Amino acid sequence: MQRRFRQVCSALKEQSHVRYAKIASAGGYSNMNTMMIKATTPDDVPLQDKYIEYFLTLFSLSPSSCHSFAITFTRRFGTTRSWRVALKCLILLHRLLRSVPGNSPLSEQLLWIRSNGLISLHPCHFRDTCSSSSHSYTNFIRSYAHLLDVMLDSTDFEDQQQEQVLELLPQLQSVIDRAMDCFPVGLAAQSFMVHSAMKLIIRDGFVCYTRFRKEMAAVLDNLLQMPYRSCIAAFNIYKKASVQSNQLYEFHEWCRAKGLCGSYEYPLVDPIPHIQIKALETFLSGMWQLTEDEEEEKPLIDVEDDQVSWETLLETSLTFPHQNDRHGHEDEQAAASAYNPFYQPNEHCGSFPRNPSYPWGL
Length: 362
Prior knowledge:
The chain is mainly alpha-helical. The chain has helices at residues 2-26, 32-39, 49-61, 65-79, 83-99, 105-115, 134-154, 162-181, 192-221, 228-257, 274-287, 310-313.
């Protein structure tokens, strides 16, 4: 009875918001508020594609509308106490971020609003008051908001040189960590809407892990030719990856059991044996050296390409079996945009191109 009462009160409040927004629109103001409220109603109906198309078309025709959207999103997400409204706000933001380049006005406006303290995705202060399992929904919304906050930091990142790659890899690892944090528990784990959000989260994790594995392999191939500090940075990234790969494997197993995404979509998670990490650590601590001039660094071994590799030096550790091979084949995915690792072009009424090879849509 109490739960039903809260739902009725929430519905009446939403109707009041819609009426107010319509009045503001009739008075000459933008109908951005109306569309935002209609897109994020407090019911179990999934976010409709027509609202995604509307906002993308609006951004394409009028880039300045990104500022109005950012303000409207901030007001809507920042004031709601309904987990359904908050979740739809985040799904809307997530899908829009996946559909625009990282250097778009939308990303710039969201970063500006965040830097001015108008919105806080992390720490997120949302608290659900409209369900009997408020704690589980609150935690999921906050974890999801944290993920999108990290994504905002990554959208305009360029990776044109080796030093920049060593900055990109921790960014990708951070996104993967935040994606794994979006682990619903309690009633949230049974919600259809939460499952819809999880599919977006998991698939972006696929993109990040596939790109991380590709870039990490390139770094390791050039390990012996890298300066000292770059090599140490690469080793620390690789060491973290050895722990993260085990966590990611368990996370994917849980997602498979829940039927989230098709089994064929999951990339193979390569295990990194601990003996390999120890061997590489010993090798680096004993062999790397700096020149007398601290401003100049030199690699450990000056060799021609393909003469020697780090794998050759650690060949005794390479016979470790891949325990995850039983879960399928390699499913390589295309690397993401240089500016936005989550950018997935799509077809709509605006000027954004479509990528027919992308099976997941917006």
